[in-house]
Amino acid sequence: MSAKFEKFFKHFIDYGGYKNILTGFRNTLLIAVCGLLIGIFIGTVVACIQLAGKRNKAVKAFSLIGDVYIAVFRGTPIIVQLLIFHYIIFASVNIDGLAEAVLVFGLNSGAYVAEIMRGGISSVDAGQLEAGRTLGLSYLTTMIKVVFPQAVKNVIPTLGNELIALVKDTSVAGYVATMDLNAAFTAIAGATYDFMVPYLMLALVYFVIVVILTVIIRLIERRLRKSEKR
């Protein structure tokens, strides 16, 4: 067992394995965080269109498009989406693998965030929207200034869980020539012909990242509770 660890750390230090791991760590966080930000933007727009479609028949067609988008991206695995974008949609386009992964993860996250945001907005008392409209505010202004701030507080814990899920899902980003954590440790495993230690270390790294993110999310939740009490 000790010989296996020695072989791993020798490749990690002497042969520059740490460089790939640092790059993979950066790319993993970049894909997850940027993917979530894109997802929040897309998901919020889709959720608003879906909710508005119930009130306005002119928006209903766009609402149906949103339903199809959510069904497609929630109904297919992220790895299949990556492969379709890489080998079909962007087959004739020279696009960086990292940018491609960020885009696909953003679109995938948007489908889940749309449901999260729709639930968060629906959880806000309908009287808040009616009160804003009574004061002469437009539907959009009322949503932005009255409803959204309350909805965001309700969905932050769920968005935190979405970020954690994205971090773990980035392990498939290597399929589109992106150096993520999984690809970095797999490279060491292939070079040393030993898969046990690299994958145990990979699991440990993911575990530490998830624990840190969980602590941060709980601290944010605690701070939000304190602000509500005040």
Plain-language structure description:
The structure is a single chain. The chain is 83% helix and 0% strand. With 230 residues, the chain is mostly helical. α8 (181-192) runs antiparallel to α9. The radius of gyration is 21 Å and the shape is elongated. The chain starts with a helix and ends with a helix.
Tally of strands: 0
Q: Low-confidence stretches at least 5 residues in length (pLDDT < 50)? A: none
Number of helices in the DSSP assignment: 9
User: What's the helical proportion of residues?
Assistant: over 70%
Specify the structural class. mainly alpha
Measured distance between first and last alpha carbons: 55 Å
Strand content: under 5%
Oligomer: single chain
Order of helices and strands: HHHHHHHHH
Mean pLDDT over the full residue set = 86
Shape: elongated
* Biggest sheet statistics: none
Which value, in Å, is the CA radius of gyration? Answer: 21 Å
Q: Briefly, what is this?
A:
This protein has 230 residues and is mostly helical. α1 crosses α8, α2 (17-53) packs antiparallel against α7 (139-169) and α8 (181-192) packs antiparallel against α9 (196-229). The protein is 83% helix and 0% strand.
